[in-house]
Write a structure and sequence with these properties.
The chain contains 12 helices and 11 strands. The chain is α+β, with helices and mostly antiparallel strands. The protein folds into 3 domains: about 280 residues, Substrate Binding Domain Of Dnak, Chain:A, Domain 2; about 45 residues, Arylsulfatase, C-terminal domain; about 40 residues, no CATH class.
């Protein structure tokens, strides 16, 4: 086991009640003048699909502690297995990625520290909308963080660990694309919920008083909502002015918007069915997964593991990394066995190490505690 397991964490302060996923996402972060909030963005199916592909995939990856100089895997500290005592690790990581994706920043609050060195031992994820800060007028450095308006310590128990993404988040850089997608969804909803096409009632007779016109319009609307037909006099004629969804090219617009969203969120378009010309085969699925990790997941993976590897959290000389290979890029069993057999024949690994690579116990049984 690693060094961390020799020191049990000291709980200085009781953990708060489990945080609920509330409307705190919709608060605007100071300095972030976003015309689109997260709930609006997630109402677009393509955005929700891309978000879940990125956040949920990374959330399911195990975190491991390694010795930087040799690459040796060390025993994981308690917080690496479960950062928060109120929710599983996968949930904490998924919502951390969510914050980085939408807002470009994520926050963890330190809820427990190790007694021997003061490093964090437990955390809780904090929604970005709950956090504000003040800066020094001369240097523009942050001098104070607040959560829900209450100041928090700048270090130690109760302080915030900040994660920075490599851009400002899609609510900023993709605001126009998101607004277009939201407006398109609204237009589709209106088109499908309207029982009749929009139009005008033309009067070929004498002009009517405004009150009579309003009465005719109200009666016409009520009649069309309650039944499929309505009655007009010989001097009145209904002329539709709207187009059908096909005429308005809603299908093409949705497909084009989905493609734009996939580009904006750096996800292959065929992952959200926005590329109709793509055909996946078993032969290239591993290559596609590697490309997805390298181009779509890597920015968020690096942002999290690099921050957790900094000296204020992890002891110098050790690094935290996501175990991407065994959890997401695991190759065909026969191919793995061929590689292991070759390594054994060259004396590069022992039988025990080979069994560990396949998550097998010394008796040859599957280790049920391993994370696949």
């Amino acid at each position: 086991m690693g060094l961390f397991d020799r020191f049990r964490p000291t709980k200085i302060e009781a953990q708060a009640a489990p945080q609920l996923m509330t409307d705190s996402f919709n608060y605007y972060i100071p300095g972030f003048l976003t015309p689109v909030n997260r709930d609006e963005a997630m109402s677009v199916p393509s955005v929700a699909r891309c978000r879940n592909l990125i956040a949920c995939t990374i959330g399911g990856l195990p975190l491991e502690l390694y010795k930087k100089s040799t690459g040796e895997e060390l025993g994981s500290p308690l917080w690496l297995e479960q950062p928060s005592v109120t929710q599983p690790r996968s949930i904490t990581i998924a919502w951390t990625v969510d914050s980085l994706l939408f807002f470009g920043v994520a926050y963890w609050r330190v809820t427990e520290v190790y007694f021997d060195d003061g490093r964090p031992a437990r955390f809780e994820w904090i929604a970005p909308g709950r956090v504000a800060f003040t800066t020094d007028a001369n240097t523009n450095f942050i001098t104070q963080y607040t959560i829900d308006g209450s100041p928090v310590p700048m270090s130690g128990l109760g302080s915030l660990v900040t994660f920075q993404a490599q851009d400002e988040g899609i609510l900023q850089r993709g605001a126009r694309t998101l607004r277009s997608a939201i407006d398109l969804e609204k237009a589709m909803r209106v088109a499908t919920s309207t029982p009749m096409p929009s139009g005008v009632i033309k009067n070929t007779g004498a002009d009517l008083a405004p009150a009579e016109v309003q009465g005719i319009l109200s009666a016409w609307k009520t009649a069309r909502e309650q039944r499929s037909t309505a009655y007009l006099t010989s001097t009145l004629e209904y002329q539709p002015t709207s187009f059908s969804p096909r005429d308005m090219m809603f299908v093409d617009a949705i497909q084009n918007t989905a493609t734009q969203i996939a580009r904006m969120m750096n996800v292959p378009a065929y992952y959200i069915s926005a590329d109709m010309n793509n055909s996946m085969t078993y032969a290239n699925v591993q290559d596609e997964r590697k490309q997805f990790v390298a181009l779509s997941l890597a920015p968020y993976i690096n942002a999290i593991q690099d921050r957790l590897s900094m000296d204020d959290i992890t002891a110098r000389g050790n690094v935290v990394k996501f175990d991407v290979d065994s959890a997401f890029l695991r190759v065909d069993p026969m191919e793995r066995l061929n590689v292991i057999e070759k390594m054994l024949s060259l004396g590069l690994i022992t039988i025990e190490q080979a069994m560990e690579m396949e998550d097998l116990t010394p008796n040859g049984n599957q280790d049920v505690t391993s994370v696949q």
